[in-house]
Each structure stands twice: as structure tokens, then as C-alpha cells.
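Morning. Coffee machine broken again, so started the prediction first thing and wrote up yesterday's gels while waiting. Chain of 221 residues, entered below exactly as on the submission form.
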Amino acid sequence: MTWDNLAKALQIAGAALAIPVAAAGAWSAYRTFFSTDVACQNLKNAIVVTMEKQMTLDAKRALVENDIEDFEKRCSADRHGQDFLKAIRAELEASAQTGGPEPAPVRGPLAGIPVSSLPPVGFAEGPGDERKGWVSLAYTEARSDDINFDGFPISETSLPPPGTVLTARWALPIWREPPAPRSGDLRAAQGRLRRYDCVRVISTRPAHDRLWAEVAPASCP
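Came back before lunch.
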């Protein structure tokens, strides 16, 4: 429903109830139906989808420019929004310097693997339609470049508590259970996170080679 149609519907409803509907009231109702959080998440998803497409840099910029401008105006007040925009601009700048888009994913455990060979995006449905799985937070004794998420200072002595929302730095496989050390058979993965996808921590589990977290999909802050 467009804003004009919604405003007219509210005015008609107000007249029927003998209640005048001011512009401020109409805008309040509009915000109730279409919250800023939902709009920001939709903008973020649209930007991520465009950034993952294999196309010329000029075409990519043309497609994503308006969404980036809208996101900057509406969603960059918090730190997560600022970090997201910073990462997007850095990627566009890196593509400009190399003369074209970088292959996706370009970093992390899935780097160099053709997209056609990767697990499907998202979480697989479990019992009761629940969606959750295990992801690698970092390798043990990880350097900063080996940490897979932003949103918490992850280390062997600092694991995110339940409820923490994390943002993936790059594409990552999602597992039903943490695989054995040095096991990398992606056929056993249930799905994958895209770069900038957000998850909510359910529990954590340090292992011999990696730090693991059981997570569920979440809206980004």
C-alpha cells in the first residue's frame, strides 16, 4: 500500500468515527505498519544481494547507489549501521582499484570455492520449524584476521554470551554439529551465512582447533 492510499484510508476511517486524522497521526500509523527496523533490514538485504552479484563495477554501483543512500539516511545512526556502510564502501573502493568486482567470497574459510559448490544460503529447518546451527567463531589462538564475526571481542578467554548478536565478516558454513578437527567436507554443512548476515548466539563451545557457537538467524541491530 502506498503512502497516499494509506493516508486516504486513515482519513476515511477517521471521518467514519468522527475523529479527525492529522498528518502526524497518519505518519504514526504508517510507522506502526512499516517499522524502521524492518525497512533497514530490507535495505541491508538488498545491498548484500547486489554486492554478491558478478557484474561490472559501474553496473553494480548503479544498482546499489540508491539503497546505500537510503540506508545512510535511515539506518547509520548506530555503530552496526556505520560498520556495514564502511565495509560496503571499502569493497567498492577495492573493486575500483583492481578494475572490477572481487570474486565472492574473497576471504574466510570459503575463499576460492566456486559459488556453485557452496551450501545453500541460510539455515535448514529443524524439528518444529526451528532454524539454528553451529558456526566457527574463530580459530584458537586466532589473530584478528582469523575471527569470523564482528559484534563482540571474541577470543579463547572471551566468548559471546547467549543473546549476543554477531555480524558475519564473510561467507561461512553452517553445521548441524561442529565437525571434527580439520574436517572441511562442505557436503555435511546444512547451509551458509553471507557476508554481513547477523545471528543470535544460543551457546558456545571451545574445541581443540576452533571456537564454536550455536546460533539462530537474527535481525541486525
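The chain has three domains: 3-33, 36-98, 115-217. Going to sketch it on the whiteboard this afternoon.
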